[in-house]
Amino acid sequence: MTGTNRKLEGRQEAVLRQMKGLGLRRQSRSYATNLYDIDSTSQLTIASDAPFEDTTEYGESTVLPSVDCGEYSDASYSEPNDESVSPSTSFSSGSPRAAFQSPAGLSSEDFEFLQAHGLERCSPLKDLGQGGFGNVDLVQISLPSGRNFVAARKIIHSPLYAQARYERELRGLVLCAECPFVVDVYTSRVTEDGQFEFLLEYAPNGTLHDMLKAMEQRRRGKDKLLMPVNRIQYYTACILVGLQFIHKRGQAHRDVKPGNVLMAANGRPMLADTDSMDSVTVTKRAGTTSYQAPELWRASLQGPGYTADKADMYAMGITLAEMTAYPAGGNGKLQQLKDDPVGNTPAYVPADLKDLICGLLAPAGKRLTVEQAISHKFFEGVDWEGLKDGPLGINVQLRQAP
């Protein structure tokens, strides 16, 4: 059955009952029905169920015993040569293993084993998250050297996620293998029953969305920045460098949002979920509705009407506004800021930060590019070369081991 006559189950029925209980009878069933569609196409995020812990303020934590969390090896940001992966290249389940990036400190023998057998010989440790397409769990792989290596296994089993989407996500991950601000992929495969699997870098500190929710609770409704200015500088700078890496290769992420930013062990943010990544000139609308630039909605009616890299920068502006003042879902104030950034940015936001937010949320013709944003005066004094070392230069560890 379709439309408002569709039978509702589970979460949709619960939402319907809740809305009716609040007296929101009008259009409540259509909202609950649409929720099914939203859930069915939502992005799958990798999130820890442990609360985010900012060790600049709070105390001791435990470390994962005798388990190695993969980190990126130091790599230059040089432009790809003729032998590198082309943005137009399609990857299949038989993609060359040499395209994957080896975690730092892993021997060639261990890495070859990780690529060849990591997904078939991994032992599940705990569930990390679920979404409309599948689920993510924490797994451990015993390597030939005797080391125990942990990673995140992403399993996609939705009929809405087809071979083409798998190849697009894998292509994006491999294309960004040298960038420490995009999540790393170690191997992937398509099973005989048509299930898509990725072995990804484990981000023990959840997502930026998780962190913002925790910081909003800590702020307790006070009119002040969600976090110190230097932390906003750091997280924004890392995401911008990741976007610059992507844009320089003629691609756009097309789904920038806090839920798609994973937090590494040292607190370094990393862009994830590259299944929407495509050429900057693509005109088909993609991404999460509340983070889409205004020109994306006009494009479907007027033909080519935007470039996806500019749409990325608008989504970055909303993400920055959430990091600064209004995490998503905050009583409509975020929408007011999007409608009029100049007039509705809170008074407690420093002038340079406000100017950057307004520049990112400006109309497409006046919106800052990633290079202009990186050169903005808000980032004066930022150590761009040291960004990959994290805000503390040491691991930000969870309070409880998996």
TrEMBL record:
Residues 84-95 have a biased composition (Low complexity). GO terms for molecular function: ATP binding; protein serine/threonine kinase activity. This is Protein kinase domain-containing protein. It comes from the Eukaryota. Keywords: ATP-binding, Kinase, Nucleotide-binding, Serine/threonine-protein kinase, Transferase. Residues 56-103 are annotated as: Disordered. InterPro entries: Kinase-like_dom_sf, Prot_kinase_dom. Residues 122-379 form the Protein kinase domain. PROSITE patterns: PROTEIN_KINASE_DOM (PS50011). It comes from Astrephomene gubernaculifera.
